Amino acid sequence: IVGPKVGFNPVDIVFDLNILTICTGMEEHNNYGVDFIKATEEVIRVCPGAKISGGLSNLSFSFRGLELIRQAMHSVFLYHNIKKGMHMAIVNAGELPIYDDIDPELRELCEDAILNRNAESTDKMLELAEKEKTRLDE
Fold first, then answer.
1. Which tens digit of pLDDT belongs to each residue from 51-69?
2. Coil, strand or helix: which one is 42?
3. What SS3 state is found at 90?
4. Which of 10, 65, 63 is closest to 77 using CA atoms?
5. Residues 28-39: pLDDT tens digits?
6. What's the whole-model pTM score?
7. Which stretches of the chain are DSSP H helices?
């Protein structure tokens, strides 16, 4: 595509990589956040100048209806992926908390889940979700 045959300028190409759901309770889904980060890095390596996009709502689909958790997950995901080369995302930007303003415990749980750095992160996120559901029902 970027070679002489087609001749697209790499800066005119946007790769919309698929962001998959984490914290589903299925172990094989636990690394999807890390997989996206690695895919971003690989696309940038292979096609320098190209842009990376992705729809964030898939990431947090396990927590639909729990916007505090979902928005924190989205903010944390962007915080780490922008550093790796992600340029844009499909997200309600007006609802995103600033990374440093996220409750430290929630931020750490989100990072553990997104970066798959704790084998218990899904269980901990699901426990948090139950607490949030109870809080919302009160």
1. 999 999 999 999 999 999 9
2. helix
3. strand
4. 63
5. 999 999 999 999
6. 0.92
7. 32-46, 67-84, 104-114, 121-137
DSSP helix/strand/coil, 130: helix
Angle at the Cα of 134 (from 129 to 138), degrees rounded to 5?
Answer: 145
What's the one-letter identity of residue 84?
K
- Distinct helix (H) and strand (E) counts, the chain: 4, 2
Task: For residue 1, give the amino acid letter.
Answer: I
Closest alpha carbon to 80 in 131, 116, 120, 28: 116
Pick from 41, 69, 48, 47: which is nearest to 57 by CA? 69
Cβ distance 32 to 41 under 8 Å? no
Q: How far is residue 104 from each of residues 29, 95, 99, 124, measured CA to CA in Å?
A: 24, 18, 10, 14
